[in-house]
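WARN retry 2 of 3 for item q-0093 after timeout on previous attempt; input resubmitted unchanged.
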Amino acid sequence: MRHTAKKLFMTTFSLAAVIGALLFTSFPASAADGASVIEKGKAVAFDRKKGNCLACHAMGDGTLPGNIGPPLIGMKARFPDKAKMRAQIWDPTVANPNSIMIPFGRNRVLSEEEIDQIVEYTYSL
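OK item q-0093 returned
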């Protein structure tokens, strides 16, 4: 009888640990993680060897912005759906075949992670 109670306790404890781990990993990132992603996105967007968004867009606290593209302000209002904004960065020629914006994803200029970071940053503007 004692052996069965111990086995039941261990099984319950193990199950609780697994469920706890699953719940912990399925919650969205904390605010600190979100800020980190935004900062990483800003770094990629401002990096002249990566996104170089400032070459064409006025945005945030960037200095010497270009004026070829529209200013990146009020992005939540312009793109209520983040997926559409991400698609625009991935390949703007889908929405506008005459776009002069580089298809950052299609041409593999930026990685998937870098595009996601830029989306988070620009969405915060």
